[in-house]
Every structure is written in structure tokens, then in C-alpha cells.
Write a structure and sequence with these properties.
The chain is α+β, with helices and mostly antiparallel strands and 395 residues long. It has 3 domains: 68 residues, 2-Layer Sandwich (Dodecin subunit-like), CATH 3.30.1660.40; 184 residues, ABC-type transport auxiliary lipoprotein component (Rossmann fold); 86 residues, Thrombin, subunit H. Helix content is 21%, strand content 41%. It is built from 7 helices and 18 strands. A hairpin with a 4-residue loop joins strand 16 and strand 17. InterPro entries: FlgT_C, FlgT_C_sf, FlgT_M, FlgT_N, FlgT_N_sf.
């Protein structure tokens, strides 16, 4: 089969910087009318195929309607995508009924949420303990420590990425009944306990989750004949977890995703394996779980990278602000932060919402202490009524 070399123009369009993505192999057919040179029709058909392939990993659809005297005068729909296409392979190309057709197979990566982001400050993230929906499933292998061991491993993986500063809050559980999580939230998907935890630890976001399933499945085939035919005698084990990310200021849910995999559990039935031990990682099941955890950490890291850096003002006196941000955030003297006043807005159901008001003021970082930052305003904080619990933000 022939390989197609992308032109420099297409490479410039498709080789954008991307974050963590999951590749998908797709097969599509592009078409273009043959109205002149065959080479031009082929190029147009190829571009159509590449565009269709990129749409397979997600598209953004926007529309606009203009009405004049009750009649629609303009009606437009725009479909755009920033997915990355690679390893393009031509399977077939031919001319059919005046149309040039090209069928390709390609790897498509889902577009990153904010590929152009250059925000360099590390957001403080509290990683809470994960609930275990069916504790009896953890008995085999003594995996009860998964409630703290899994989020602790996730926090270490997030810290290794360099984009966030993950704080170990795995001793704290946000859900009394993990089977119903995140039903502890209000109808508007807000978790008040996440606000309390974030305030306590000085975190901007809270990561939590639930391990839904660790069920073991005994293989149907057993005995010498099955082993001779290549069937494995090891049981398979499920792994299903949900991961949530809440905003520490408002309690609003920013991210929710379910992850599942399975693998062979070769550990002896009477072994006290434990979660995240060398014996656990040595099993095929442990390898599959490690892969899915790395994927989850990458997804959370990418989502948080798209969020602004925010920190609370803990004291405002004169033109000096004390900001709750550690040295690990990456702030340096001379950096500027926008100042926002926090307030409360009530919706139609009289439920409180956190509102941020841009004060059109900037604070310049003067000192970076291990656990807080000192910044200065151009004038007295009292003049703008800036006080404790207001925010500074870097977009």
C-alpha cells in the first residue's frame, strides 16, 4: 500500500502542539469533483479525507441566525476541529462518476482542550481519598488500601507532570456513601465539602473519585487440555473508577470521567498483595491499572492546564497583599496578577453562587515566601475595598 506524504501546508495545520490525547484509528473516504487536472482533484479529495478523519475525534459546531421582520435572513453553521492526524495510509483511490475518491486509514488524536495555553503557574490541587463502592470485592488480594493508595499514586503522577502542585488529602473522604457519589452534590453539581477542603489546604481545585468495581471472573476453561491449547487459567479482574474535579472556590464540578479496564490476576488467592505494591504491579492486572491511572492523570492535568491560576488574598493592608500561594506555584518577583473581588449572587432558586468582579487593578509580586506571596498594589487596598477572601488571578 502507498504512503501519502503530507504537504508543508497541511503539516502546519495538523501538527499543532497537543496535550495528553488518546489516538484512534479511523478509515474514511474523501471525494472531490474532477473538473480540471486530475492531480488537483486528487489533492482536494485527500484534503476532504483528512478533514473527515479529524472530525472523528471531535468537532466544535457553532451557528448564527439573523432575523429581519420575523424572517430568517442569515443562517450559518460552522464546523471546526483541531484534531491531529498522523500515519496516513492510502487504501484505495479511483475516479467514480466524475468524482475522485481517496480512502485512507489514519491515526487521529483527540484535540487538546487548550493547545495554545502557555500558562506556567502550578495550581494547588487537593487530592482526596477515593471511595470504594463495593468493599467486599477488595478482600481478595487485600486491596482495602486502594482508598488511599490510589489517590496517593495519582497525586504523585500529577506532581511529576509539573503542571500542578498536588496536595495529599487522601485521609479525607468527601462521600459518605461512595455508591451514590457524586450525589452528595446539589442539583447544580456543586460539592460544598470540596470548598471546605480547598479552603483548609489552600488549594484551588479538589480531585476525588470512586472505585466502582474490582470484581473477579473465574475462567470457564480449565484443566490440562485448556492449558495445552493456550488458555490462561488465571482469573480476570475488573477495574472501574470515576474521577471528579471540583472548583475549590464555588464547589462546581469541572470534570467527571469514568475509566475501566480488566486484566489477569495471577497473584495467589491467599496472598496479601495490597494495592500499589511490587506484587500488585507485577500482575497483568496491575499493568492495566497503571496504564489507566496514567491516562486519568493526564486527562486531569490537561483539564487543569486550561484553567486560570487563582489564589486567595489572606490579608490586605495599605498597598500590600498577602496571597495564599506557596513557592511551588512558580510565582516570581515582578509577576503581575489581576485582582478580583468575591461576592455572592443568588439564582432564581435563591441558591448562593460565588461571583468574581474585576477590580481593574493589578498586584505586582514582591516577595515569594515558602507558604505565601506578598504583592503590592498601585494604591491602598482600602480604596478598592479589597479585603480577605478576595482573589488574584492569572489567565
Amino acid at each position: 500500500m502507498k504512503r501519502f506524504r503530507l504537504s508543508s501546508l497541511l503539516v502546519g495545520l495538523l501538527a499543532l502542539p497537543f496535550g495528553h490525547t488518546q489516538a484512534e484509528v479511523v478509515q474514511v473516504t474523501g471525494r472531490a469533483p474532477v473538473e480540471g487536472a486530475l492531480s488537483y482533484a486528487r489533492e482536494q479529495a485527500m484534503e476532504d479525507a483528512l478533514h473527515q478523519a479529524s472530525l472523528q475525534a471531535g468537532a466544535q459546531i457553532s451557528g448564527m441566525q439573523l432575523m429581519e421582520k420575523g424572517v430568517v435572513s442569515t443562517d450559518t453553521v460552522r464546523v471546526s476541529t483541531r484534531s491531529q492526524v498522523s500515519d496516513v495510509e492510502i487504501l484505495r483511490e479511483d475516479t467514480v462518476n466524475g468524482m475522485y475518491e481517496v480512502t485512507i486509514r489514519a491515526d487521529v488524536d483527540e484535540a487538546a482542550l487548550c493547545p495554545a495555553s502557555v500558562q506556567s503557574y502550578r495550581k494547588a490541587v487537593a487530592v482526596a481519598g477515593f471511595g470504594l463502592a463495593q468493599p467486599q470485592q477488595a478482600t481478595l488480594g487485600r486491596l482495602e488500601n486502594i482508598e488511599q493508595g490510589l489517590p496517593r499514586w495519582l497525586a504523585a503522577e500529577l506532581n511529576s507532570g509539573g503542571g500542578v502542585h498536588a496536595l495529599d488529602a487522601t485521609r479525607i473522604s468527601l462521600y459518605q456513601d461512595p455508591r451514590r457519589a457524586p450525589s452528595a452534590e446539589t442539583a447544580q453539581q456543586r460539592l460544598t465539602t470540596s470548598v471546605a477542603l480547598a479552603t483548609q489546604l489552600g488549594a484551588q481545585y479538589v480531585v476525588s473519585g470512586v472505585v466502582r468495581d474490582l470484581a473477579l471472573h473465574t475462567p470457564q476453561k480449565s484443566g490440562f487440555a485448556s492449558r495445552l491449547m493456550g488458555f490462561s487459567s488465571a482469573p480476570t479482574r475488573d477495574f472501574v473508577m470515576d474521577v471528579f474535579v471540583h472548583d475549590g472556590l464555588s464547589g462546581a464540578m469541572l470534570f467527571q470521567r469514568s475509566y475501566r479496564t480488566e486484566g489477569e490476576w495471577e497473584a495467589p488467592r491467599n496472598e496479601k498483595t495490597g494495592f500499589a505494591t511490587p506484587q500488585f504491579w507485577a500482575t497483568s492486572y496491575g499493568t492495566e491499572v497503571a496504564d489507566i491511572l496514567k491516562r486519568a492523570a493526564g486527562d486531569v492535568d490537561e483539564m487543569l492546564r486550561c484553567q486560570p491560576f487563582m489564589a486567595r488574598i489572606v490579608r490586605a493592608r495599605g498597598n500590600r497583599l498577602h496571597i495564599e500561594a506557596s513557592a511551588a506555584a512558580g510565582l516570581r518577583p515582578g509577576d503581575t496578577l489581576k485582582v478580583y473581588r468575591t461576592g455572592t449572587l443568588y439564582n432564581l432558586d435563591l441558591e448562593p453562587r460565588t461571583e468574581l468582579t474585576d477590580m481593574a487593578a493589578e498586584a505586582v509580586v514582591k516577595q515569594v515566601q515558602p507558604q505565601f506571596v506578598i504583592a503590592e498594589l498601585g494604591g491602598p487596598a482600602e480604596r478598592l475595598a479589597i479585603q480577605r477572601d478576595d482573589m488574584v488571578i492569572a489567565w
